[in-house]
Amino acid sequence: MKSYQTAIATLILTFAFSTSAFGDGIIHTEKTPPPPPPPQTDGIIHTEGTSPEPEEDTLTEIALSLLQTLIPLL
């Protein structure tokens, strides 16, 4: 009898935790959401369209250079 209770409790918990995965992050409430705040420019104009180098590329380059230096030691 104890194993049936444990199995049912496990199924209920699995169902409860998995419902958030299918919710798509949408919460339905009766209220309307507030309007977004107005954009603040603070008088700063950005003219350059370049973005910094992604961190993943830097880490990849570091790992590859480290691997290239360690291969001759083997």
Compile the SSE list and pairings.
Elements: H1 2-18, H2 55-70
Question: Which descriptors apply to this entry?
Answer:
74 residues; mainly alpha
Task: Write structural notes for this entry.
It is a single chain. With 74 residues, this protein is mainly alpha-helical. The chain is built from two helices and no strands. The protein has helices spanning 2-18, 55-70. The radius of gyration is 26 Å and the shape is flat. The mean pLDDT is 75.
Rg over CA atoms: 26 Å
**Uncertain regions spanning at least 5 consecutive residues:** none
For the largest beta-sheet, the strand count, sense and barrel status come to: none
**Count of discrete alpha- or pi-helical segments spanning 4 or more residues:** 2
Please give the number of β-strands. Answer: 0
Q: Please state the overall shape, judged from the principal axes of the Cα atoms.
A: flat
Strand content: under 5%
Q: Structural class of the secondary elements?
A: mainly alpha
Order of helices and strands: HH
For the residues shown, what is the average pLDDT? 75
Please give the alpha-carbon distance between the first and last residues.
60 Å
Approximately how much helix is present in the residues?
40-55%
Condensed summary:
The chain is an all-alpha fold.
